[in-house]
Amino acid sequence: MDNVSNTVRVELGTRSYDILIGRSILSDLGRYFKDLFPHSRAVIITDQTVAGLHLDTAESSLHEAGVDYSVVIMAPGEKSKSYQGLIKACDAVLDSKMERGDIVIALGGGVIGDLAGFVAGVIRRGMRFIQVPTTLLSQVDSSVGGKTGINTGHGKNLVGLFNQPHLVLADTAVLDTLKPRDFKAGYGEVAKYGLINQPDFFEWLENNWQGIFEGGPEREEAIARSCQAKADVVAADEHEANQRALLNLGHTFGHALEGMAEYDAERIVHGEGVAIGMVLAHEFSARLGLCDLAVTDRVVAHLQQVGLPTHIRDIPGQLPKVELLMDYIAQDKKVSRGSLTFILTRGLGQSFVKKDVEPDLIRAFLEEKLV
Questions:
Q1: In the annotation, is 367 catalytic?
Q2: Which end of the chain has fewer beta carbons closer than 10 Å to its terminal beta carbon, N or C?
Q3: Is 270 among the catalytic positions?
Q4: Residue 239 among the catalytic residues
């Protein structure tokens, strides 16, 4: 039985690939693998949490298809997305005697997808890989587009490379196993697509978010529309020379908040940082006279409605110093020749790339938000 309900094509010439979306599609992993790579072995990179929930299904599917495979299990959380985690994963893949023609399978959320994609890009100067995202955030964002990498003490995602997968399998049924907090965090990335340039999608989300959370057909539609939005941007600007930067709406602020919390998931996870960051981007845009405060109020209302944080004060623990946030912002990947670049907005779904933002304006704005 074919479990695919939606297919999104990422058009990149000879490197184009499909995102297959559907309930219980993980059980078809072996079949898709064998169709694409009939003579290859596989190494699954996953984490302890995902392994306990979904590894059996993935292994059974590969076994039934006659695929020879090995497994690398990492610790869960952002701590594995580090130099130490990269070394551990690379050594494990090499220990399994995988060859260049073999395939890395990233089975997990954004951390595992970013790490495994990076590993695939550097082992033997490049292996192919498949993304099997198991969180809402990774299904609609990090598994698509080829960005891979790790965090350092200087900031998030500062060491990495572009490495497109050969296939993305997004099983919407596995999302039923997520903790409510993690599902909500992923929803922040879904809302982002509406706020970038699809106000009609944001309005649809305002009216249909409950179906997404409950696992109705709205879930598959939201994931497909999100993936299509990202695929369109990636096809037009794969290496973020220009408009792909729009996908970072909320991320400059959000990454700084994650950094100041030392990537402690007890305090803040990525999607929560993005949610707060999107609100800050809208508020800062209003401060500059670019958009009406009513737009910000609408964004805040919807994010709060689904249970996402919308203010820096919502982060547990001590509030950061402004200069610490500014240090992280200065390390943002969009910085060019020392000038700050932010994704701001002129209205609902009217985001744009704003270059040469004055640091003093950001500093004064954040000082107010930390009171």
A1: no
A2: N
A3: yes
A4: no
